[in-house]
């Protein structure tokens, strides 16, 4: 296993997915990218396990959503766009 623990925010908007702030081991990498005002959801992709000789393991979790939208409305918008990663749930 390696010591890296990268994570990346992704924001779902009416125009699709937008990359957000990146971190590694809890330290922000690059610029802080604020959640767009039109965001519908914000998801965090986190490395769970890192291996030297095989694929790393990532998890996804919803960390924010627009409370004025139902889960069904958010899911419908999410389904209109390509997933931000092959590991994205759903």
**In what range is the share of β-strand residues?**
35-45%
Helix/strand class: mainly beta
Give the termini separation: 28 Å
Number of helices: 1
Please estimate the helix content: 10-25%
Mean pLDDT: 87
Strand order of the largest sheet: 3-2-1-4-5
Number of domain modules: 1
Report the major sheet. Answer: 5 strands, antiparallel
Order of helices and strands: EEEEEH
Overall geometric form: globular
Explain this structure to me?
The chain is mainly β and 90 residues long. The chain is 10% helix and 42% strand. It has a five-stranded antiparallel beta sheet with strand order 3-2-1-4-5. The protein is globular.
SSE topology sketch:
Layout: E1 6-13, E2 16-24, E3 27-29, E4 41-49, E5 57-65, H1 71-79
Antiparallel strand pairs: 1-2, 1-4, 2-3, 4-5
What is shown here, in short?
The chain has one helix at 71-79, and strands at residues 6-13, 16-24, 27-29, 41-49, 57-65. By secondary structure, the protein is mostly beta strands.
List keywords for this structure.
globular; mainly beta; single chain; five-stranded antiparallel β-sheet; 90 residues
